[in-house]
């Protein structure tokens, strides 16, 4: 058999090509077969889950949402109302612009409540109101959405203890207070609790200490609550929004700068020239 310039015969080259390429071809076939099987399993599982999902009649299901003056809570209340849920929209003030806007609903299913989640008496009034609606209409409380939140940004050295306490009272203890108050109704309906935390409940950023510790706390609280509620058939869900500060009205540079200015040490003044901080409201 004729030899190639490199000293190999065509037969030798053929054998080398076979040795190298055959395993590659076989592996490609195996990979393709594996991907096809995986796709079939996924589609079968999806169809099975879809066929077994239990649909609930929304017309007799109540949802209480905190922090409905602006942002997520406000839009969520309007959306659920349009879907047919009975909505209890908790607002920091029932005379705020957001509350007045929600009151324009003509469905008769949207109830606007004055609900400052840092006040025990207002939370108890909300429980009483929801219970009365339940007794009157048979509408149970199917879900609680802990959405109210507060944000104040600033370096740890510049943030006052009052700021730390205030944020914790809303973001963490407010969540605990409302959850404890409404748990009996949620357990009765075997419903669910949705806690709005943040991606900052998983990572830390400069100037976010007062806010971040409350979101880490909210994550931990939700994890423990989820384990405790399993035996009652109650689901606990965590929502972790990303960078929605501007859209929710939570950030306001001027108000936070005004809040921090009286406490700025002289050594910080040069550093803070032309720099601003952000803050927000419940």
UniProtKB/TrEMBL annotation:
Keywords, sorted A to Z: Membrane, Oxidoreductase, Transmembrane, Transmembrane helix
GO biological process: one example: steroid metabolic process
Signal peptide as annotated in the record: none
UniProt-listed Enzyme Commission number(s): 1.1.1.30
Enzyme class: oxidoreductase
Membrane-spanning residues: 16-48
Domain of life (superkingdom): Eukaryota
InterPro entries linked to this entry: NAD(P)-bd_dom_sf, Sc_DH/Rdtase_CS, SDR_fam
One annotated GO molecular function: 3-hydroxybutyrate dehydrogenase activity
Identification of the protein by name: 3-hydroxybutyrate dehydrogenase
Species of origin: Mytilus galloprovincialis (Mediterranean mussel)
């Amino acid at each position: 058999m004729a030899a190639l310039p490199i000293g190999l015969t065509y037969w030798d080259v053929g054998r080398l090509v076979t040795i190298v390429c055959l395993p590659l071809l076989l592996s490609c076939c195996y990979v393709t077969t594996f991907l096809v099987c995986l796709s079939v399993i996924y589609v079968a599982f999806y169809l099975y889950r879809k066929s077994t999902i239990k649909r609930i009649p929304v017309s007799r299901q109540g949802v209480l949402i905190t922090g409905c003056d602006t942002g997520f809570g406000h839009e969520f209340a309007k959306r659920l109302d349009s879907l047919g849920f009975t909505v209890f929209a908790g607002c920091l003030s029932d005379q705020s612009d957001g509350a007045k806007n929600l009151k324009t609903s003509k469905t008769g299913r949207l109830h606007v409540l004055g609900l400052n989640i840092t006040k025990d008496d207002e939370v108890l009034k909300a429980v009483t109101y929801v219970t009365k609606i339940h007794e009157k209409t048979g509408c149970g409380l199917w879900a609680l959405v802990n959405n109210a939140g507060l944000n104040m940004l600033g370096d740890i050295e510049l943030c006052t203890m009052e700021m730390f306490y205030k944020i914790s009272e809303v973001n963490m203890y407010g969540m605990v207070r409302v959850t404890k108050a409404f748990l009996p109704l949620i357990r009765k309906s075997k419903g669910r609790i949705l806690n709005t935390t943040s991606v900052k409940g998983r990572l830390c950023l400069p100037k976010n200490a007062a806010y971040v510790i409350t979101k880490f706390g909210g994550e931990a609280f939700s994890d423990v609550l989820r384990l405790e509620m399993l035996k009652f058939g109650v689901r606990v869900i965590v929502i972790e929004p990303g960078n929605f500060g501007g859209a929710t009205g939570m950030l306001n540079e001027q108000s936070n700068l005004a809040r921090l200015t009286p406490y700025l040490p002289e050594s910080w003044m040069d550093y803070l020239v032309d720099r601003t901080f952000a803050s927000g409201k419940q």
